[in-house]
Amino acid sequence: MSARPFKTQISLASLLLVILSATPFAWSHEQQLYLSRYVPNLKYADADLTANAENTAYKPIFGEGDKDAYHLNGISRMGELTVGPGGASAIVQRPREEYVLYVTEGKGTLIYGDKRESLRANDFLYVPAGVKHGIAKETDGVIKVLFMGYHLMKDADYTPKAGLEIANADEVELQVLGSHGPTTQYKLLMGDTSSTRDRLASAQNMKSLFIMDFAPHGTNNPHRHASQEEVYFVLRGSGYMVAGLDAYGNVERHPSQVGDAFYWAAGTEVGFYSLNKEGEEHSIILAIRSDDPTKL
Length: 296
Hints:
Elements: H1 12-22, E1 34-38, E2 54-63, E3 75-88, E4 97-105, E5 108-112, E6 115-119, E7 123-127, E8 133-137, E9 143-151, E10 165-168, E11 175-176, E12 184-192, E13 200-203, E14 206-214, E15 228-236, E16 239-245, E17 251-256, E18 260-264, E19 270-274, E20 283-291
């Protein structure tokens, strides 16, 4: 007797049950958006800051010039500008974007409107929309500056303060914020114009520029911001960055080191756990948080 092929019947409902059981994570949670970059490995790219400029280079990190720029809402761009000896960036101005600048390395000169101001490491400043600005380096060495730009809110009142808003993070005292636990201290650098706790109260869409100093094995207690985007830059130390969810909806931890930059969309779990031990230098993170206009 010849063998016949075995045939079976399966109902549509049974087939759907098999598919669902094979992919238990598909509907178990809403994915949380984050982006990560290792800045030293990023490529330089053309930008308005480098147009016809001398000894100047720019790395897009997030936003304009980055492949995932479409994910960002209130942030226009974040990047690292490097100016070498005798160099100078192009002078730029954007009528609908405000900027926060932070000097991560070296000394140089800020061109701000028709003024020139000396810059040194850990200086931070606010550039109102429409103000011409650029960076120059007359001496040896390089200066590196983070450019962090934000779209102005539509139909919102925008009246920036007169004069240059600038300070240095070394002159801002550390403090503990109760909601984030005792193992992390904060330097509150800049807020919006209504801020009463920051060194500078300058911006519109940018809500908080701050530094976190983590004690050995410290954490800032992972948390979420329902209507704000946030970016971290690891300036010193190492640890685990909290970002995104795994297939089962659990918060993921990512090994992190100096040079890492992370972006979190509104509503995404954000946080850090330091791996530095007793006797080692503390982990230091520069963070900046801003309103997401699509969530307001």
